[in-house]
Amino acid sequence: MAIVYHIVLCSWQPTLTPEKIIENCEYFLSLKEKCVRPDTQQPYIRNLTGGIDNSIENAQQGTTHGFIVEFDNLADRDYYRDIDPVFQKFVKDVGADFNVVIVVDYSQNVFQKPQ
Q1: For the chain, which has fewer Cβ within 10 Å, the N-terminal or C-terminal residue?
Q2: Phi, psi values for residue 27, rounded to 5°
Q3: What sign for the dihedral angle of Cα 28, 34, 38, 40?
Q4: What own/partner pairs with CB < 8 Å and gap ≥ 24 does 21-27 have?
Q5: What is the pTM of this model?
Q6: Which residues contact 26 (CB under 8 A, 6 or more apart)?
Q7: Which pLDDT band, with edges at 50, 70 and 90, does 1 fall under?
Q8: Residue 74 to residue 37: CA distance in whole angstroms
Q9: Which of 19-42 are b and which e, b meaning 16 or more Cβ less than 10 Å from the residue's Cβ?
Q10: What is the Cα–Cα distance from 106 to 9, expressed in whole angstroms?
Q11: d(Cα 104, Cα 106) in Å, to the nearest integer?
Q12: Of the candidates 12, 23, 18, 28, which has an alpha carbon nearest to the alpha carbon of residue 100?
């Protein structure tokens, strides 16, 4: 099965301080170690990176930050999104701080959905 790339583009509520934005970003990045499969007791996020936009293309659609979460397979991605209590707590803690969130998931060189 192909690696799943979970791309998150976001912006933050204008009332947030720069310090709070950094805190939220660091919290997001910490999920790589904190999200653990209950059956293996091992972290299942393959890689997680993120940062502030530095594009010169002016095509950000209002987003200011980007994150890439890599999973070994769709099952891990689905567990993360739908079940993982650590991720659910992150959404509860930080969700209201987002202004815009755009999410796209893909696997490399897969251009059609399976039939």
Answers
A1: C
A2: -60, -45
A3: positive
A4: 21/65, 24/94, 24/97, 25/50, 25/65, 27/90, 27/93, 27/94
A5: 0.92
A6: none
A7: low
A8: 14
A9: eebeebbeebbebbeebeeeeeee
A10: 14
A11: 7
A12: 12
Report the candidate in 36, 94, 33, 43 with the shortest Cα–Cα distance to residue 65: 94
Structural contact between residues 7 and 109, judged by C-beta atoms closer than 8 angstroms = no
12: amino acid identity, one letter = W
Express each pLDDT in 9-62 by its tens digit.
999 999 999 999 999 999 999 999 999 999 999 999 999 999 999 999 999 999
In the numeric block, the tokens 């397979």 are attached to 73
Identify the pLDDT of residue 113.
80
Amino acid, single-letter form, for residue 20:
K
Structure tokens of 22?
A: 């950094």
Q: Cα-atom radius of gyration of the chain, to the nearest Å?
A: 15
